[in-house]
């Protein structure tokens, strides 16, 4: 039986695929939130993308380093049968003792006093995992969500699943790279990409707003490339 | 949704929804409840609503993009944009919806014109909110009834305005056989062939296959203007991507295609084989029947209220004609014909009401209507000429007639003449001998002031009644004017008060008053000077025509006007008229009243250049008139 760290090694991921990994890890997971999450099968990678249940997720953090920085807030919303239901939306600020850095407070509009009203990391991650069970995670710029969620899982459960993810930034980048024309990396920002395909302006740096904005962007991206409905999950998976 | 921040987290969407009636009347908490019931869909351009997989009745709110609602026969009913509500799939009655689903006879087809981001809410949710907040339920019940009414009247209007082309196949219009040229021939050879055969468009053939199309315009634009040698191959300047239309299609589709693609010639195919060519001109000439359609409806109207309703189609007809690229001349003739029909119908109603006229008479149109240069809803200028046998007490009948007709015209949107040049004014409701005297006085003892007010009477036409009454007056008048240089001099002096603003684009000699700042008065600074010149030519040469272009054409080659100048003047006049018609169509489409004030920004650099040229032509001819006295 491989250890949890081995399961998460890149070599192993490549060999195994996330569904096999889920089954492996399920056997080791203690009863509770993580076990519940792992017990729901993930969509087959050959499922047409229109039929895949997706959870658009966004984190606001105190910085870019998951080892040092803290999660500030989590927002998510489901994208299912090609529609976003606002009823499924979730936004929560996380209570933490970490000192808020002034520069980030300005960006995220979360002040220390607001943060005191937040909920514990365990509660918020539990809600997220519950909503994410059986779904594929959709993010813009996957590194942040991937590393912070993995880190939080290690902290809370001592092990972390591998999360199948779709990254709207990576999809856009793939398209731009294919054109073989130089572009400014700022073109890949969520707001720039939305502006380019004429989606409405959105108020960024709120985890839920960004999650909705990402889900809308993904719908728009798919509407451009998936006219015949032939795109499957594996075509867009990170 | 959890968390204390619910209201702020979805604040963007809430703010958007809150800005749209009737949701602007909802309290914050209910609005928040509504917002969390929304779903978001993305529908790509050209797809239909409802989005795939949505079956229950919903109200759609357009967040971004544009959609068209079409009736079952494909007529455009409404076009919606950002912030608009689409209730085509919002039925209170579930039964209706399921029925329409089964028979697929949804009363409206809703198609996206652009990629759309849509919010939607289940009808059941909205009904539940509506039960507590009547402003919501009222809005939707009222609105659908209203919208249906609007839709019906719109569909009827469309039918009236386009019935001829809608019901006619392209096969009735196309010219056959098609004129073609080999791809290896030169541009000059193509031009020669066009001249010889009288075609303005050739299909280019390469090894028996059609490969493109070339028009006289292409020769001008892509060869002459760019300095390309006329010995170059015709394939150099042809348009390669050729649009075609199947012979079975209706003429309206052909016209719409040509309008959309900005092309004037459209090859017609039968089973992909070229069989002929249809041109915009062929179709527009047919559009003239619109005026006939409308006239026949006007003729059937029984009340002034009915006439009033029909009159509301006039601006739409003008817009349509302008969009089709009709010349100002054609628009003016169509609108004038319809005004004439209104007037005749009102006279018939008056004669029915007040009995037969006591003595013969004629109802006269003056000014732009007489010249057949009227645009939608201009002011009325009219007069009555009565047989000399009238007795003083007969005037009561004519006064009743004048009042009835002028009031009726005003009801139909033809505002009362500000200068009181109307048959209701006793001065302009006179027996023939008085009219003789008026004209004799004006011509023999002209004063510039008197002429300014009365020059409108030099453009008169009979609308109804005894044509000989006016013809006799005109004959005498022309005989006098032709030899009276003093009169012509006065008339010229008057006319020269209106000068084209030659420095329009350089010195900005623009209208500086009020809301028309920095605009050009197309009518007074451009069109009126030409009309005035044409009138002077007509009166000095004894020409009886009143239409400006006809006057200039008939004056061409007389001592008053050289043939070349006449051609230039007609070009200038038609160009100004086109600018005016296009400008007014834009204004009318925006729901504004049509005016004559053109902003330089409205037109392209090229058109600005043409405008300068047009002004120069007019000024030169004005100067020529001036120096001859």
In words, what does this structure look like?
Chain B: This is Cyclic nucleotide-binding protein. Chain B: Keywords: CBS domain, Repeat. The complex is a heterodimer of chains A (238) and B (629). Chain A has 238 residues and is α/β, with parallel strands linked by helices. Chain A has one domain: Nucleotidyltransferase, domain 5. Chain A is built from 12 helices and 6 strands. In chain A, strands 1, 2, 3, 4, 5 and 6 form a 6-stranded mixed β-sheet that branches. With 629 residues, chain B is of the alpha+beta class. Among the domains of chain B are: 142 residues, Jelly Rolls (Sandwich); 113 residues, CBS-domain, CATH 3.10.580.10; 146 residues, Up-down Bundle (Four Helix Bundle (Hemerythrin (Met), subunit A)), CATH 1.20.120. In chain B, helix 16 packs parallel to helix 18. The longest helix of chain B has 33 residues. Strand 3 of chain A pairs antiparallel with strand 1 of chain B.
The residue fraction in helices of chain B comes out at: 40-55%
Q: How many DSSP E strands of chain A?
A: 6
Average of the residue pLDDT scores of chain B: 81
**Name of the top-level CATH class of chain A:** Alpha Beta
Domain Exonuclease (chain A): 53-227
Pfam family, one (chain A): RNase_T
GO molecular function (chain A): exonuclease activity
Protein name (chain A): 3'-5' exonuclease
């Amino acid at each position: 039986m491989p250890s949890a760290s081995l399961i998460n090694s890149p070599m192993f991921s490549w060999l195994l695929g996330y569904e096999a990994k889920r089954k492996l890890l399920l056997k080791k997971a203690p009863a509770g939130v993580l076990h519940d999450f792992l017990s729901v099968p993930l969509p087959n990678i050959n499922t047409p993308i229109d039929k895949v249940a997706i959870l658009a997720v966004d984190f606001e953090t105190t910085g870019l380093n998951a080892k040092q920085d803290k999660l500030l807030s989590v927002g998510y919303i489901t994208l299912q049968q090609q529609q976003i239901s606002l009823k499924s939306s979730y936004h929560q600020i996380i209570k933490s003792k970490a000192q808020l850095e002034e520069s980030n407070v300005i960006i995220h509009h979360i002040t220390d006093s607001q943060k005191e009203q937040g909920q514990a990391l365990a509660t918020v991650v539990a809600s997220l995992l519950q909503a994410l069970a059986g779904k594929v995670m959709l993010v813009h710029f996957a590194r942040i969500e991937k590393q912070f969620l993995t880190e939080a899982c290690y902290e809370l459960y001592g092990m972390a699943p591998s999360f199948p993810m779709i990254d709207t930034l990576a999809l856009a980048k793939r398209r731009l790279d294919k054109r073989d024309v130089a572009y400014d990396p700022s073109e890949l920002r969520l707001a720039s990409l939305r502006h380019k395909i004429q989606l409405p302006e959105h108020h960024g740096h709120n985890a839920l707003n960004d999650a909705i904005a990402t889900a809308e962007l993904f719908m728009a991206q798919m509407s451009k490339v998936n006219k015949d409905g032939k795109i499957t999950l594996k075509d867009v998976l990170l | 949704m959890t968390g204390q921040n619910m209201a702020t987290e979805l604040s963007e969407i809430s703010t958007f929804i809150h800005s749209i009636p009737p949701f602007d009347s909802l309290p914050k908490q209910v609005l928040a409840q509504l917002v969390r019931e929304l779903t978001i869909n993305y529908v790509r351009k050209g797809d239909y609503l409802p989005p795939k997989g949505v079956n229950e009745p919903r109200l759609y709110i357009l967040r971004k993009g544009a959609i068209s609602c079409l009736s079952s026969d494909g007529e455009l009913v409404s076009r919606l944009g950002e912030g608009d509500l689409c209730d085509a799939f919002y039925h209170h009655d579930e039964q209706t919806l399921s029925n329409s689903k089964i028979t697929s006879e949804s009363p409206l087809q809703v198609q996206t014109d652009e990629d759309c981001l849509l919010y939607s809410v289940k009808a059941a949710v909205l009904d539940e909110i509506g039960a507590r907040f009547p402003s919501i339920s009222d809005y939707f019940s009222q609105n659908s009834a209203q919208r249906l009414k609007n839709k019906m009247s719109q569909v009827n209007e469309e039918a009236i305005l386009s019935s001829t082309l809608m019901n006619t196949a392209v096969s009735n219009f196309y010219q056959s056989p098609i004129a073609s040229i080999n791809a290896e021939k030169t541009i000059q050879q193509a031009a020669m062939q066009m001249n010889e055969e009288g075609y303005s468009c050739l299909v280019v053939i390469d090894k028996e296959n059609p490969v493109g199309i070339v028009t006289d315009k292409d020769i001008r634009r892509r060869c002459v203007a760019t300095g390309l040698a006329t010995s170059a191959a015709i394939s150099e300047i042809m348009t390669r991507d050729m649009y075609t239309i199947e012979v079975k299609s209706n003429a309206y589709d052909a016209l719409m295609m040509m309008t959309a693609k900005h092309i004037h010639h459209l090859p017609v195919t039968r089973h992909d084989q070229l069989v002929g060519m249809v041109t915009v001109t062929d179709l527009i000439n047919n559009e003239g029947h619109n005026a006939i359609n409308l006239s026949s409806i006007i003729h059937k109207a029984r009340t002034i209220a009915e006439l009033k309703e029909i009159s509301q189609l006039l601006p739409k007809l003008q817009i349509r004609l302008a969009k089709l690229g009709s010349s100002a001349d054609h628009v003016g003739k169509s609108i004038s014909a319809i005004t004439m029909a209104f007037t005749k119908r009102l006279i018939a109603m008056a004669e029915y009401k007040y009995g037969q006229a006591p003595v013969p008479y004629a109802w006269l149109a003056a000014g732009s209507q007489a010249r057949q240069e009227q645009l939608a809803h201009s002011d009325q200028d009219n007069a009555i000429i009565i047989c000399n046998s009238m007795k003083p007490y007969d005037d009561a009948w004519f006064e009743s007639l004048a009042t009835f007709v002028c009031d009726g015209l005003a009801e139909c949107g033809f505002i009362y003449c500000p200068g009181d040049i109307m048959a209701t004014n006793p001065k302009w409701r006179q027996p023939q001998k008085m009219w003789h005297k008026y004209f004799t006085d004006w011509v023999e003892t002209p004063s510039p002031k008197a002429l300014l007010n009365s020059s409108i009477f030099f453009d008169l036409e009979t609308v109804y009644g005894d044509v000989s009454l006016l013809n006799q007056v005109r004959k005498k008048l022309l005989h006098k004017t032709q030899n009276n240089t003093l009169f012509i001099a006065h008339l010229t002096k008057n006319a020269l008060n209106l000068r084209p603003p030659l420095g329009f684009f350089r010195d900005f000699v623009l209208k500086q008053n009020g809301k028309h700042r920095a605009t050009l008065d197309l009518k007074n600074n451009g069109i009126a000077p030409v009309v005035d010149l044409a009138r002077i030519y007509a009166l000095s040469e004894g020409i009886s025509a009143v239409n400006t272009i006809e006057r200039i054409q008939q004056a061409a080659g007389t001592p008053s006007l050289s043939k070349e100048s006449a051609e230039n003047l007609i070009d200038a006049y038609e160009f100004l008229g086109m600018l005016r018609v296009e400008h007014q169509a834009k204004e009318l489409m925006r729901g504004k009243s049509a005016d004559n004030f053109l902003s330089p920004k409205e037109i392209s650099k090229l058109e600005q250049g043409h405008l300068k040229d047009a002004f120069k032509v007019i000024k030169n001819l004005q100067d020529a008139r001036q120096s001859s006295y």
